[in-house]
Amino acid sequence: MRRFEFAVDRRHAHAVNEVVAGRRRVRLAAVPAALLAAAATAYLVWLGHPWSYPLALACALGAVTALWVALWAPRRTGIVRLYAEGELVPAVVSLIQPRGAVLLALVNVARRDNGESRYALVTKTVRQLPGHRVAEGERVPAIAVRADRTTRSIGERWLPVDAMPIAWGTSDTAVIDRARASIAEIEWRLLADNLARAEEVQRSAAKRLLLDPGRLPEGLGA
């Protein structure tokens, strides 16, 4: 796995990183959800009907889950840890939108524990890209955020993988340039050749497009 080490600017990340903003919104929503589920649990127990106890148990589990999301989950998925543990991947601006852009990224969607690689195209809609030109073909080094970070088995062979730009973790353009240079030219060219497929990826049910290993450049095959 190709990692990229750099000093994450926490203040910058909290200001522009859309992954951080999304998780902050989830945290804020989880607090009232936990309180509501706890209140429902207490009410169902107070009713004392035979049918109310199974519902109370379900509500209690919901309250615990919401509390975990609000308090403990953010510590396990901190932004510094995501950048440190993720794989460096290439992404390019493929579509320009009125309020942002769509990135097309090349990621490995194979599970880590099966010893194979399987590459796919995924898209990422972003509102801002500090340190980059918002122009078609702009090279945006990113970190792959995988769904198997906290579990060994989710029942899928190919995993959901998201792309998080390096530019969301630092405002230092020299770091972005170094990350860009760390990615092989054949990977950038592969994305450039597939720019027109971004809309196809977005329309797909799985939000990814698996690439034929036999047609990949040498060094990227399974």
Describe this structure in words.
There is one protein chain. This protein has 222 residues and is of the alpha+beta class. It has a 4-stranded antiparallel beta sheet with strand order 2-3-4-7. Strands 1-5-6 form a 3-stranded antiparallel beta sheet, with helices on one face. The two termini are 14 Å apart. It has helices at residues 10-16, 18-47, 52-71, 73-76, 79-85, 173-181, 185-193, 198-203, and strands at 87-89, 91-97, 100-108, 119-126, 142-146, 161-165, 208-210. The protein has 2 domains: 17-76; 79-215, putative membrane protein from Corynebacterium diphtheriae superfamily (putative membrane protein from Corynebacterium diphtheriae fold, Beta Barrel), CATH 2.40.410. The longest helix has 30 residues, at 18-47. A hairpin with a 2-residue loop joins strand 2 (91-97) and strand 3 (100-108). The chain is built from 8 helices and 7 strands, in the order H-H-H-H-H-E-E-E-E-E-E-H-H-H-E.
Give the secondary structure arrangement, pairings included.
Blueprint: H1 10-16, H2 18-47, H3 52-71, H4 73-76, H5 79-85, E1 87-89, E2 91-97, E3 100-108, E4 119-126, E5 142-146, E6 161-165, H6 173-181, H7 185-193, H8 198-203, E7 208-210
Antiparallel strand pairs: 1-5, 2-3, 3-4, 4-7, 5-6
Output the keywords.
three-stranded antiparallel sheet; elongated; 222 residues; single chain; alpha+beta; 8 helices; 2 domains; four-stranded antiparallel sheet
Describe the structure concisely.
41% of the residues lie in helices and 18% in strands. With 222 residues, the protein is an alpha+beta fold.
